[in-house]
Amino acid sequence: MSSAINDYNSQLVTVKTTEDVKVGLKALVTGASVILEMTTGGLFMENVKMEKQRTSEPYPFICRNILSQGIRGFEAGLWPWGFILGLVKGSVLGGSKAYFDTVYRDFVTDKKKAALAAGFSAGAIQGLFMSPILLARTRVNQSISERAISGVRAMSVWEEMKFSQSILYEGVKRDGIKMLATGMPTCVFKRSMDWGTRFFFIDWIRKSVKDYSGNDQMSNAQQLLTSFAGGAASVTVTMPIDRLMPVIQAATKGSIPVTRVLMDKFRKEGVSTFQRGWTMRTLHTGYHTMFATFVSDKIYKIINES
After folding, report:
1. What is the pTM for the complete model shown?
2. Which of 246, 266, 181, 184 lies closest to 46, judged by CA?
3. Most exposed: 69, 91, 263, 297, by fewest CB within 10 Å?
4. What pLDDT, in 10s, does the model give residues 194-206?
5. Which pLDDT does position 177 carry in this prediction?
6. Contacts of residue 252, Cβ cutoff 8 Å, sequence gap at least 6
């Protein structure tokens, strides 16, 4: 009897260790996939979207302003906060999704509902980790853009890193450590809705494709395109929340309430302000979702099978 119990406990430990390794590997792979997405155009699209939301300037003006610094403009904000943000949001998403998949699998009998719940939960955890880093990058991008408009020369990687750190340091010094939590509740809710709706639309679109074709198997191209389509479709639900984030985090003057900043935006731009940056947000979200889901899953499977 004692031997049987020991064998059972040993099996539980082995299973737990295996699950932990899978979660850790999925986290690393997803983090690397997101960095790949950022450096191949994702970061540029996100910076354009954030500047559109912050300034409401035309896309051509924003793109020219960002690209006026060449490759440094194309990858603006990558070091250090962009890289850290990409690695964190990818790793946290991949690891959390893998973890919650196993948790909900034990409590929810419907696999689709379990996967959807895991998506919402993983998004919320991602938002918790991302918020302070996203705040830092928003402030840095704002300052770099203002320097470019004023004609200040482009900075080297080392200078940009020092400049980025000084901006965050001055912000904490001026507003206190609570500054790092600016917009955090909104960010947590936003990321939960982001990934919950993305996984929902991906599953719905793939089901529709399978029903239309009569084939239960999907090609890699179909999986890639449906990942893009699912991510892009989710923007219709989450766009107003996404619109709030850079406005909240760019409100650097502590004496001005965030509600006043938002009301000023609404008075100047009307209802359309909640859809500001929609085009670039849709393109970037689809692109990002491809890497964070399809590409990371493919790499993960290849590593597991090797």
Report:
1. 0.77
2. 246
3. 263
4. 999 999 999 999 9
5. 73
6. 139, 142, 171
